[in-house]
Design brief:
Chain A is about 35% helix and about 20% strand. By secondary structure, chain A is an alpha/beta fold.
């Protein structure tokens, strides 16, 4: 591994695949990224040499596994710029991380309390809040999306009230690519006395993070979108906030001492990690953040901005193509959602697949946003460290031919 | 090839797309996978599906499937029209539809059955 783009492609075995007779152009990393050999070997090496249960196994393998697992926590802490290791809680993914917060905070909600989300949320940062609001008699409000796909911050100001308990917002929209003004959102929410949860599923893989400086109370993300394995995610929680919360779920490891009718909770972060954790997932995630760390997240972000800019430029010039989200790649994550007039997104994706080009099609788990945009779905190209300008060019060429292909 | 000539032809030139004035039965539904929406309106006379039209926002496979479905069902007794199967449609579509797109074929089928069984449209 030396650099982003062409320079790291050899690390990703799957990129050698031929799909439908063409070389694979994998432009669906926002759904799930591919894995470098370093991650694959870390996971298989763990299973071949060191696997055992963590924390309570008093034998060599158990100690090795515990060291790898807790070492993964330290690696993730450093990668996201958290102050303390106990602020890093391992989950199955972003969805579980958000549900964990919804369970814990939801329990404290009173009838009439308010939660604020936005119209651009992925379902995973909407449905858990719908569920807790329904259970607790709380009220769910949504910040509208305006213009090219920005949050209406004036409306946000009007929605904030002394009843607002939590504000749940995507760091980066998985459809529009909009990088939301998280510092302002955090500052204004905190001034109103509300907690802030950021859905970082599209943030952590692509942007250099300094969560301590960002100030959000919670930040959730997934390993599999950032070169790591599936089934592993992270909930970052500010220590002062986590200390106030009752655990979401019960089981082994999250307790210190247990009697038949009650128990004393374990310390952070284990209080929120009942049961045998995804050890291999953490080992793989650690290898992934080390890989990204060596590339350098500033370089990763610049590379993906370059690809996003090229993609916007070329697609916008094709007759019949509509692009969604901000047109300026400087304020946009590594996704480009678009439609081709007269071509349903699923047909478009199937036709591109015939040429070996993998893109996402559909509502991208953001149906309220699709309703706002007045469309059923879009095509979406998204980028990671291993994508190249040549792939963007092949995508554009194939998109030009879509209307004649059906 | 996912897209047989028949699918392309029926997508470009559907024969049963549109709406009916004062239909006797109608139903619409979405494919949760992709957000596709399709509506089918029916005219019923003498225990038969006298006429029907489909419309909506959906992909080529779904449009073609709805079109061949109505072509097959119109004129048939209601019990037969509501008993047509995915297999009947796949045969008529002359296509090798992959598992990931099979809902595109079956959505019109369940919508027609919903209309004939008097289902209410969910909001």
């Amino acid at each position: 591994m030396s650099s982003v783009g062409e320079g790291c492609r050899a690390d990703f075995p799957i990129l050698q695949r031929v799909v439908n007779g063409s070389r694979l152009d994998y432009l669906d990393s926002a759904a799930s990224s591919q894995k470098p050999r370093q991650v694959i070997e870390a996971v298989s090496g763990y299973y071949e040499r060191s696997h055992a249960n963590v924390h309570r196994s008093i034998h060599t393998l158990g100690e090795e596994a515990t060291e790898l697992y807790e070492g993964g926590r330290d690696a993730v802490r450093a990668f996201v710029g958290a102050r303390f290791r106990e602020e890093i809680i391992f989950t199955r993914g972003t969805t579980e991380a958000i549900n964990l917060v919804a369970q814990c905070v939801g329990r404290t909600l009173q009838s009439g309390d308010e939660i604020i989300v936005t119209e651009m949320e992925h379902h995973s940062n909407l449905i858990p809040w719908q569920m807790v609001c329904r259970d607790r008699g709380a009220i769910l409000k949504a910040v509208p999306v305006i213009g090219e796909g920005f949050l209406d911050m004036e409306a946000f100001g009007r929605l904030l009230s002394p009843r607002t308990r939590l504000v749940a917002v995507a760091h980066v929209s998985n459809v529009l690519g909009t990088i939301n003004p998280v510092s302002e959102l955090v500052r204004r929410s905190h001034e109103a006395g509300a907690l802030v949860l950021l859905d970082g599923a599209q943030g952590a893989p692509h942007l250099a993070l300094d969560l301590a400086a960002m100030g959000a109370d919670f930040y959730a993300f997934s390993g599999h979108k950032m070169l790591g394995p599936t089934g592993i995610g992270v909930l970052y929680g500010r220590r002062e906030v986590l200390e106030q919360l009752e655990p979401a779920w019960g089981g082994g490891e999250m307790i210190k001492e247990v009697w038949i009718d009650h128990a004393q909770w374990n310390d952070l972060p284990w209080r929120f990690e009942p049961g045998t954790p995804p050890i291999a997932g953490v080992v793989g995630l650690r290898a992934a953040v080390e890989y990204l760390g060596k590339l350098g997240m500033e370089r990763v972000a610049a590379h993906e901005r370059d690809l996003t800019g090229r993609c916007l430029d070329t697609l916008q010039r094709i007759p019949g193509v509509t692009v969604y989200g901000p047109r300026n790649p400087e304020i946009k994550g590594a996704v480009v959602a678009f439609n081709v007039e007269g071509i349903h997104p699923h047909d478009g994706a199937a036709l591109l697949d015939e040429r070996g080009i993998a893109v996402r099609a559909g509502h991208h788990c953001a149906q309220p946003l699709m309703k706002r945009l007045g469309i059923a779905g879009t095509l979406r190209a998204s980028f990671s460290v291993y994508n190249t300008p040549a792939e963007v060019e092949r995508l554009a060429e194939a998109v030009k031919g879509l209307r004649d292909a059906l | 090839m996912v897209y047989s000539d028949l699918i392309r032809e029926r997508f470009r030139h559907p024969r049963y797309q549109g709406s009916l004035e004062r239909p006797d039965a109608a139903f619409e539904d979405v494919n949760p996978l992709c957000g596709d929406r399709i509506r089918i309106e029916c005219r019923i006379a003498d225990g038969r599906l006298a006429d029907a039209r489909h419309r909506g926002d959906s992909c080529a496979i779904c449009v073609a499937s709805a079109d061949v479905l109505l072509e097959r069902a119109i004129g048939e007794p209601l019990d037969l029209a509501s008993r047509l199967t995915t297999g009947d449609l796949l045969e008529r579509l002359e296509a090798d539809v992959r598992a990931s797109r099979i809902r595109c074929v079956t959505l019109p089928l369940s919508v027609l059955q919903g209309a004939l069984n008097g289902k209410e449209v969910a909001r």
